[in-house]
Structures are given as structure tokens and as C-alpha cells.
Design brief:
alpha/beta; five-stranded mixed β-sheet; seven-stranded mixed β-sheet; globular
Length: 334
């Protein structure tokens, strides 16, 4: 199998519709590049006594614990970057910092991912029930949504947060026009909207981006979706799975089952041994390969708990007890 040595050559293939074999080729190419050019990742591999000669498949690639983003500059190649994205974190906890060398890769990733699952962004009017970008310049979610709003080319796309009445009027206006609309919001804000206003959204896709995180009583995803569906008159609530340390998202169209684009793969590690894998159908820690993370780290050991389903989708079941609560809706209370 031919491996790519030049990162620019790797870039050319990241967003292809990769087969299992081509994904393996790219992942291994990125592993060897990371080992040679990412000092933090190399030190970690050396500490756990794994060298390139030990890695001949994606199941043998070491995954960097996400906590390293809190204390280290995780970068491959020259120590320069275009943007720093920080995790939302909890008050008093140290935030992760993702040093993004090339925002072009992030833009390609989130736009291609969205259109992979939902079609051309230009078909939508996007209403974001989120804080404004200028209030949170280091949020990767807000950056992504701002760019997608611009990409819609729709003059009524925009951010909404505190004025739910204005948002409701806009939704009703767009519904009358039959305009295809995406309402994307943090969970507690969507729940507030659903409880305060009774809507019947026939042309609007509703998507949530996270849990309550201290704003309201925690609900299971199923409980949350049932309440939002009842209040907004939709058959399904969609979900987005992403984090500051990644450049690619997974999406769920129903039942909390997330799917990844071809350049992202979720793997489930054993609960007790992070260097072993959970058996088929068993739950454990979520590891992510994000090929778009070429210049930071494509191999992330998260603190989320999940399970892979028979169709290749995955579910997020919770967080490890010792991990920080995280969620984009914390942005509005810090």
C-alpha cells in the first residue's frame, strides 16, 4: 500500500468519498506524518511505547487523550496557526485550545459534511438560536454557523438568542412562504422556545447541538426531543455532534443515531483499558479519526461514552464521570 509523505498530497484526498481501503491509506499516512512532525503526539506515542513499526492498521494507531489540548500546543509542522478555537468548558475549569493552522480545511470540512447529509446549503434559510459570533470569537461552533449563514445567501438567515418572539414571527413568516429552513440551537434554548410557543413547522428542520449543561434539569436525548417535537410540531429533531478539538461533525437525523462523513470514523474503546477495543455492540469510550485534523491531531480519545450500531451509526450515551461537563450552550452563561 502506497502511503503519502507530503501533507499537501494528503490534503488532496481527505474529502474524497473514501473506500475503507483508501481511508486506511490516508489514516496511516497521517499517523506517520504526525509521528514525525507533531512533538506532542510523538512524545505521547513514545511514552506508551508505540513506534511506527508497530502500526500497520487503523486499529493500532494511538489516540491522543483530548485532555492534552488543555495544556499543550497540539500542532504538526511549523508552530504557526490561523485561529485558536477554545472549548466551552465549565466555569473554573481549564479550556481546551485547538490551534487551527489552516481554516480553509475547516471550512471545506463543515460545508462538505453538511451538504453530504442535507444537500446544498443555498437551499436553506438558517436561523441560529445561539450567541452571536462577536460575543464568542473563539467558538468553533459559532464560527461554523456564521460561515454557513453567509453561505446560504439568504438575507433572512441570522443569529437569534434572547428575542424568541422575533424568531417565532420569522419562523411563521418563512413557513407561509414554504421556505426550507434550518433552525439550529442549543438544547435548553430550543426547549424554552417549544414550551413558550406552539408552532407547526412543516418546512423547518430543527437541530440541537447539545445538552442543558447547568441551565435546566438534564434530560435524556429522547426526553428532550419529545418535548421539542411536541412544542414545535416536527416529526424529528436532528442533532449535531462536534467539539472544539475536531474539524468535522457527525449528524443524526433521528433517534440519536449519528452518521459520519467519509473522512471521519468513530471507534469504541474498552471502558477500563483505553488501549483495547470494546466488543461488537458494546458501549465504551468514543475515539475519533478526523482526517481534516491533519495539522493538529487526527486521532482523538474523547471523554464521551458511546456505542456503534449494526448500520455503522453511533450513539452518544454520556460522559465519563471524571470528565468536565462541556457543551456549546455554556457559551451564554460564562
Amino acid at each position: 500500500m502506497r502511503l503519502y509523505e507530503d501533507p499537501k498530497e494528503i490534503e488532496k484526498h481527505i474529502f474524497s468519498r473514501n473506500s475503507e481501503e483508501s481511508f486506511r491509506q490516508l489514516a496511516l499516512s497521517e499517523f506517520f506524518y504526525q509521528y514525525e512532525h507533531n512533538p506532542v503526539y510523538r512524545r505521547y506515542c513514545d511514552l506508551i511505547h508505540i513506534s511506527p513499526r508497530d502500526v500497520d492498521g487503523i486499529w493500532k494507531i494511538p489516540f491522543l487523550p483530548v485532555e492534552f489540548f488543555k495544556t499543550q500546543h497540539v500542532l504538526a509542522g511549523d508552530p504557526v496557526w490561523e485561529q485558536v478555537f477554545t472549548s466551552s468548558g465549565t466555569t473554573g475549569t481549564e479550556k481546551s485550545c485547538h490551534y487551527v493552522k489552516d481554516l480553509r480545511l475547516y471550512r471545506q470540512s463543515f460545508l462538505r459534511t453538511f451538504e453530504h447529509f442535507y444537500g446544498p446549503i443555498g437551499d436553506y434559510c438558517l436561523l441560529a438560536l445561539l450567541p452571536g459570533y462577536m460575543d464568542n470569537p473563539n467558538s468553533s461552533l459559532i464560527f461554523m454557523v456564521r460561515e454557513l449563514i453567509d453561505d446560504t445567501g439568504h438575507r433572512e438567515s441570522g443569529f437569534y438568542m434572547d428575542d424568541r418572539e422575533k424568531l417565532t414571527n420569522k419562523l411563521r413568516e418563512l413557513e407561509k412562504k414554504g421556505q426550507k429552513t434550518l433552525l439550529l440551537g442549543v438544547s435548553f434554548a430550543l426547549l424554552d422556545l417549544a414550551e413558550e410557543y406552539r408552532l407547526n413547522l412543516q418546512h423547518t428542520l430543527v437541530m440541537e447541538t447539545g445538552g442543558m449543561k447547568g441551565r435546566r434539569k438534564e434530560l435524556t436525548r429522547q426526553e428532550l426531543h419529545q418535548k421539542v417535537q411536541g412544542g414545535l410540531g416536527v416529526n424529528q429533531v436532528h442533532s449535531e455532534y462536534g467539539m472544539a478539538e475536531l474539524l468535522t461533525q457527525a449528524y443524526s437525523k433521528k433517534d440519536g443515531r449519528f452518521h459520519t462523513p467519509p473522512w471521519m470514523k468513530v471507534m469504541i474503546r474498552d471502558y477500563d483499558d483505553p488501549f483495547d477495543w470494546a466488543g461488537q455492540g458494546k458501549s465504551g469510550g468514543i475515539n475519533v479519526i478526523d482526517l481534516a485534523n491533519l495539522y493538529s491531531c487526527p486521532f482523538i480519545e474523547t471523554k464521551d461514552i458511546g456505542r456503534i450500531f449494526d448500520d455503522g451509526s453511533f450513539g452518544v450515551l454520556g460522559r465519563f464521570d471524571e470528565s468536565d461537563v462541556r457543551g456549546c450552550n455554556l457559551l451564554v452563561i460564562e
